[in-house]
Amino acid sequence: MALTAKALAFAITASAALGLSAFGAQAASCGNTGAGFEAWKQAFVQEAAARGVGGKALSALQATSYATKTIHADRNQKSFKLSLEQFMAKRGAKTIASKGKSLKKSNAALFARIEQRFGVPAGPLIAIWGMETGFGSYMGNSNILSAVATLAYDCRRSEYFTNQLHAALKLVHNGSLHSGAIGAAHGEVGQTQFLPVNVLKYGVDGDGNGSIDLIGSRADALASTANFLRGHGWTPGAGYQPGEPNYAAIQGWNSATVYQQAIAIIGAEIDG
């Protein structure tokens, strides 16, 4: 697949951030239906092996299948077309704020440690946690590797998700992601729904057990979310409502304006 100068520059920059070659799966042709997925996958496996991907990760890639529900979800994202009031109602903002206050109290020591380490208060973290997965109660029903592989193969955003797939394989290789792990339709991982590249970049050990597990450990998930916000310019002690310094960090979490506003509103309600 031919790359424009702009696209090539993006591929080089993104791949360099992961210590990867820039030219990975470009030799494997993308497709808009599942018909070519198996052939694409075999080409990707060969390319990944040539780049030094280990046997465990290659076996996990071989086991992936074309995820039709991922494609359906990717083509039918409607929530962000709602008004703020409609979006807040759809996401259960009042319930999130109410339960969030209770969780802040019952996990006070954890949130104090996170704020001391990253400068991010509990409110926006709990708002994200609640909106993304209902506080870890539902993290999706898609095989993460199959979802990411499907989107890497799909022509709509192939370059972007090729980078995500390389990151996911690296997570499998280093033991941070199980090959059968379940996540959201686009391959989001864990209780606050990190894409694989962000797990590599911002994932931290929040519970001190020496590993990073964004699925099974709320401490890891919340600390990693705080690290993400800090990485996007969060200033300790500054406000995070629209027009205040830390709102830009919230904008880094999600590009949808209604989502950004909801985080700020719910977070402020939780923080009091």
From TrEMBL:
GO biological process: peptidoglycan catabolic process
Residue ranges annotated for the Transglycosylase SLT domain, each copy included: 37-240
Chain segments annotated as transmembrane: none
GO molecular function: peptidoglycan lytic transglycosylase activity
Keywords: Signal
Pfam families for the chain: SLT_2
Organism encoding this protein: Pseudaminobacter soli (ex Zhang et al. 2022)
Taxonomic placement: Bacteria, Pseudomonadati, Pseudomonadota, Alphaproteobacteria, Hyphomicrobiales
Key word Endoplasmic reticulum present: no
Protein name: Lytic transglycosylase family protein
UniProt signal peptide: 1-27
